[in-house]
Amino acid sequence: MTPYEPPNRLPVTTTGGWARPGWYELLEEPEREGRFGPDDQRELFDDYCTLAIADQQACGLDIVTDGEHRRRGWIEAITAALPGLQRRPATRRLGPVGYDMLEVYELQRPLDDLEWMWDFVGEYRFLAQRTDRRPRVGMPGPYGMTTELDFRQVYRSRRECAEAFVPAIRRHIEELVAAGCDYIQLEEPMTPAYAEDDRTAASMAQVINKCVDGISGCTFTVHVCFGSFRRLPYAKRTYRPLFPALLDANVHGFSLEFGGREMAEIEIAGEWDRDRLLSAGLIDIKTHYAETPADLTERIRECLRYRDPERLEISTDCGLRRVPRNLALQKMSAASEAARKVRADG
Ligand SMILES: [Zn+2]
């Protein structure tokens, strides 16, 4: 594995997508109605991503993404582009937000011939041409890709379905690395399980390894969160069942959420091998409270009890897509200020 090289000490970054501007909602309807031609659509998303990159730079982030806006969520457009799907609307559509409001797709044929999922290279090139910060691409991991699928007509278990994505994910990773991308984060939220699922930390590590083994010249992290469906989590919020087994994944580090859990279980990072990177979610995306630089300085110092500063990134618990943009700007500017203070204090 190529060693991880941070762009600077205690780099600040986000996980997942950047905050959507409020005005984008006004464009969704005409877009759905087909009033945008392909060139108009490209221009819309180019502008939208340019803004996301500028926002991140203005907040002082050291590692940036393209905002992932083209995906219409972290995975939605990527899933919708898969072959052999039948959309199944949620059976409950009214009332308080719940995970049973998620629209899923029934998978109706095997994914054996799946070669292409998404234009990750196009996203990377767009980003790399527009930033002097370190670019990173987020990619749904093999289990992550099963999130919106009911695969039970085709596969016996979630692992079998996850394995079906391995060749395409691996190919996309190789293409990204060939295009110059040296940092990829695989995203693996803890999707609620079907009874027949066999997702354990050990099987996650094995399937992830099939995607990354033997690929050098790139830093890999795996983001594992408890999900955020319209900003509500949907999995039991503990990492204990995952570690140490997940350390069998041949990746540089893990992006985990601690901010929304008031730093619970941060001591797990102290049980890892010394080289492993913690991309620590210290900014809670599920609260309207804007963490102050003092709050985040305290959290960074707590992480430093368990990780060397060369193996620690300051990040968000999950994507900022549903966080109001003004709040996201406030939170991430505070994170950069906190990181600067801790760096200056040595
Ligand atoms: Zn997440």
Mean pLDDT: 95
How many helices? The count is 8
What's the alpha carbon Rg, rounded to whole Å?
A: 19 Å
Instruction: Report the CATH architecture.
Output: Alpha-Beta Barrel
Secondary structure: helix percent: 25-40%
Ligands in the model, by name, code or SMILES, are: zinc ion
Record the strand order, biggest sheet: 5-7-8-9-10-11
Q: What's the shape?
A: globular
- Please report the first level of CATH classification, the CATH class: Alpha Beta
Summary, kept brief:
Helix content is 32%, strand content 13%. The chain has 346 residues and is α/β, with parallel strands linked by helices.
Explain what the structure shows.
Helices cover 32% and strands 13% of the residues. It has 346 residues and is an alpha/beta fold. It has one domain: TIM Barrel. A six-stranded parallel β-sheet has the order 5-7-8-9-10-11. The protein has a three-stranded mixed β-sheet with strand order 2-3-6, with no helix packed on it. α6 (201-212) links the parallel β7 (183-187) and β8. The protein is globular, with a radius of gyration of 19 Å. The two termini are 29 Å apart. The relative contact order is 0.16. The mean pLDDT is 95. The structure holds zinc ion. Zinc ion binds next to loops. Residues 16, 189, 223, 225, 228, 318 line the site of zinc ion.
